[in-house]
Amino acid sequence: IEIAMTHGNHYGEQNYSFVNGQNTTQGGTHLNAFREALVKVVRTHFKKDYDAKDIRESIIAAVSVRVEEPVFESQTKTRLGSERIAPDGPAIRTWMNDFLSKALDDFLHKNQEVAKAMESRIKQSERERKEISEVKKLANQRAKAANVHNKKLRDCKYHLNEKGPDEQKLASTLFITEGDSASGSITKARDVNTQAVFSLRGKPLNCYGLTKKIVYQNEEFNLLQHALNIEDSMDDLRYNRVVIATDADVDGMHIRLLMLTFFLQFFPDIVRNGHLYILDTPLFRVRDKQQTFYCYSETEKQAAIQKLRGKPEITRFKGLGEISPHEFADFIGENIRLDPVILPEDTNLDHVLDYYMGKNTPERQDFIIENLRVELDIIDTPEEEAQVEPVAPEEVEAA
User: 235 and 162 share a domain?
Assistant: First the structure.
């Protein structure tokens, strides 16, 4: 057994597990044994019955084990199912507990400063949990009361955490939209069996650097957490896909960034487990009297113009509210395009959030300038001229 662990500044746990050198991204019996043994050893060492959540809060750990003839629960070998380290060997649970009971306890006795820092962090988590418990209770009561007349959520019939056909449960989707016009189009076009819509008032709270207590006090985020059913854990997530659907303009991108910050800071497992997506919507409609093409890029638009020849009508969609429900039904139906939000295994969340949402630094300014994209607004003229709106230096600086 090899274990490396520390504390981060994030919420929740961040565990990486390996069996015989292979990364088991979905964990398994060895990771479960580690999480259980860690709690037992910490309680025994400090002689206090700390809550398991407080002990494991913000932990970053890498757990590597060698198992003879390992049995995996999936064909991709990403989750260990073996109960023993070898056919005739001890149970993995016992093996891990014995190892940590000696190795971690000895380490903490020999490194008193580390032990003090660890206990201090556990106590900090305990204080934060107790601080938000009453706020959370009131927030949940408000959310449940609001559910009856919740104008923010247009729910669907099937959910991931409830009984029903597997196909429908896996198709369950929550679209997070901005404003009433966009949510109105999606609501009218959606599949009421599997697609729900949650409407934001506009730009949500920038929660970077905030505590969970403040986020629970924010009505909009509180209602969203309740809609997703993730206040306590990810185990009962109501929708398999959580889709951020914003306009393809500066304000829309800002809202997208704020929502990504919310999920990455407080619910990173939604991203790690592949539940978070960005809705890709068409930028152009190119049509004549016989055919219509919806184009998601300048390249697709030029290809459509070539196919139609002549002088087709070109429409540039400025926002989701401009797309009719009839057209939207195609974009969120069988032809839906979703960009998954991927969090690589080696991502340092604290660094990522600080880089994009922390203080404005020269490095971030350079990144913005190097990656700045200026969209071409199409003017519907015979010459089909393209105009580029100049970007003022102060706007780049402010970004």
Answer: yes
